[in-house]
TrEMBL record:
SUPFAM superfamilies: CRAL/TRIO domain, CRAL/TRIO N-terminal domain. PROSITE patterns: CRAL_TRIO (PS50191). Residues 17-40 are annotated as: Disordered. Residues 25-35 have a biased composition (Polar residues). The lineage of its organism: Eukaryota, Fungi, Dikarya, Ascomycota, Pezizomycotina. SMART domains: SEC14. This is CRAL/TRIO domain-containing protein. CDD domains: SEC14. InterPro entries: CRAL-TRIO_dom, CRAL-TRIO_dom_sf, CRAL/TRIO_N_dom_sf, PI/PC_transfer. It comes from Amniculicola lignicola CBS 123094.
Length: 330
């Protein structure tokens, strides 16, 4: 991202933030000879600055805290070795990348709350407890078990989804790297009984995302709120912090028109008024440009489970029955 895309004040703060990080590298950067990908990218630094109203001191403290947390909990190692079944279950219970991008080139995630199954949530928490218990460094960590498993979803976003979106040729505003996504949260059809069954999981997911990956949050649309349940809108509003993202609540009559301002009709699922034949529970349906990147590895179509984009090529990682799928340098 060129600093020409920023205001003079923003560019000054970004550069000050970058120099602060170079002068005081995080534990992650000190511990490895391989620097993190684009560690001081303007767009990423700008997101942290926006979170803290352009206070370089606060942004630096937050950035450093998160990077050190990643090192202490060996998040990259955890992601490379996570059980694929556990990972896929966790993915199904949170926002899913549908393989499409919005008009700015950002990945589109969809979360349909009425499809969440309390039994699957219980299994997810069991998977998380097993993951924490299986590694000595996790056992000694004060980090909650579900936060460790949830972190693998954030790694997928950072090491696979975002690199793919940035690798698309002729993407919109190519000078500005994609660092965050657009989410559509569908709360239609959620009964009062189901809400009470799911609210703890939903609240926890929101807190984890805000705490461990606030820079990936950008824009969310909440659709399908029943007009006779105004309290539900109030409850959902508590999930989101205005400092982290723009949140728009859409009435049923406004959903299609508003979403098409941000998403092309061919990239918007039919359930929201678009043309895309995709629904919750199905594999993502990547567009032609994303498909071309994915299939450079010789495989056709979508590959589920954790993956990374290594030198522009998709590499499935994680384990199946304790056996690694592939090994790449982390």
């Amino acid at each position: 991202m060129s600093t020409k895309a920023l205001s003079d004040m923003q560019a000054l703060r970004v550069e000050e933030f970058r120099q602060r990080l170079k002068a005081k590298p995080t534990s992650t950067e000190q511990s490895t000879s391989k620097p993190p990908s684009e560690p001081y990218d303007d767009a990423k630094l700008l997101e942290f600055l926006k979170l803290h109203k352009f206070s370089v001191d606060e942004a630096h403290a937050h950035y450093t805290e998160l990077e050190n947390w990643r090192l202490e909990n060996r998040i990259e190692e955890t992601y490379m070795n996570v059980d694929c079944k556990s990972f896929n279950r966790a993915t199904s219970l949170h926002g899913i990348w549908i393989g499409r991008r919005d008009r700015q080139g950002r990945p589109i995630h969809v979360w349909v709350l009425r499809n969440l199954d309390p039994a699957e949530i219980a299994a997810y928490l069991h998977d998380a407890a097993e993951l924490k218990a299986s590694h000595p460094h996790h056992c000694e960590s004060p980090t909650a078990a579900n936060a460790i498993l949830f972190s693998t979803l954030l790694e997928y976003f950072k090491r696979f989804t975002i690199p793919i979106c940035n690798a698309v040729p002729n993407r919109p505003d190519a000078q500005k790297p994609v660092v965050s996504g657009t989410s559509i949260v569908d709360i239609s059809g959620v009964s009062i009984r189901q809400w009470w069954q799911l609210k703890d999981h939903i609240n926890e997911a929101s807190k984890l995302h805000a705490k461990y990956s606030p820079d990936t949050l950008d824009q969310s649309f909440v659709v399908g709120a029943p007009p006779f349940l105004p309290w539900l809108v109030g409850a959902v509003q508590k999930w989101f912090s205005p400092s982290m993202m723009d949140v728009t609540f859409l009435q049923n009559s406004d959903i299609k028109k508003k979403l098409l301002e941000y998403v092309d009709a061919d990239d918007l699922p039919k359930r929201f008024g678009g043309n895309l034949d995709w629904d919750y529970g199905k594999d993502p349906v990547p567009d032609d440009e994303v498909t071309a990147i994915l299939e450079k590895d010789g495989r056709k179509g979508w590959v589920d489970g954790p993956c990374v984009l290594e030198d522009g090529v998709r590499v499935p990682v994680g384990t199946v029955n304790g056996v690694k799928r592939y090994t790449v340098d982390i």
